[in-house]
Amino acid sequence: MSITALLPSFPVVGQNLKRKTISSHFLPPFTRNHLLFQCHPLVPSSNPLPPIFNPSKTNQSKLKPTSQSASKSCSSNQNNNPIEEKTMGEGLFDLERHFAFYGAYHSNPVNVLVHVLFVWPIFYTALVILQFTPTLLDLSVFGLALNYSFVFALIYGLFYASLDRKAGSLAALLCFLCWVGSGFLAQRLGFDIGWKVVLAAQIFCWTAQFIGHGVFEKRAPALLDNLVQALLMAPFFVLLELLQKIFGYEPYPGFQRRVHAKVEADIKAWRDSKLQSKLK
């Protein structure tokens, strides 16, 4: 028996796909290690592979960005997001906060419909009675005096226009048209009949809204918690609600989703507090 027969041998696959046996005695160290690594991958090799078979860590680091650079890029993308900038209102001009506050008190469809029908008549008849106030300036628009009715409509119109450019401008136009129409109606009716018409309209419209809250919404009106915010937002809430239902309008992308989440959270908190008060 020859000495080479006692040496270990390793099977490899040749070009003809037949398994051959090569004695490791006649192979250089690098080739023996290479064949051992290919044929027996579970067997550790004492000599590391050359760089051509072992990519360097520097090349891999070039392909994968570090966590610090990734975090910086994410933070820069968040800071440059135009949608997030549009959603950030402040104080009195935060449309999202106003709309969520008013929407939490008007989630029932029947109650919302009642407000759609009667909110703007309340605003209009309020302008009618204010047409009988003294004139503030010796100027006239369409033959109408600039009195407290004009100031009332101007405040509402400017406030709505500051909340949203498109829907707010439409609401401001409606406020101006209501002022013009209320002026002509006040001239035709006169004070003796006008105040009676206004009183009857106000009682009817407010009664309908209280019924909507008590019977359908089953929650007190928003004006009992925040009178100024409720009276300011009511006409614009109705208009924006119609624009969303009919045309799918949003002041900015994601507005409806964000408001809906805040409304649901407010309603849940109100129901939890109501349940706790009953248990006490």
Automatic annotation (TrEMBL):
Biological processes annotated in GO: sphingoid catabolic process
GO cellular component, one term: membrane
UniProt cross-references to InterPro entries, sorted A to Z: Mpo1-like
Entry keyword annotation includes Ribosomal protein: no
Pfam families in alphabetical order: Mpo1-like
Record keywords: Membrane, Transmembrane, Transmembrane helix
Keyword presence, Transmembrane helix: yes
Domain of life: Eukaryota
Bilayer-spanning residue ranges: 112-132, 139-161, 167-185, 197-216, 228-248
Residue spans of biased composition, Low complexity class: 67-81
Annotated segments matching region Disordered: 54-83
Biased composition (Polar residues): 55-66
Name of the featured protein: Uncharacterized protein
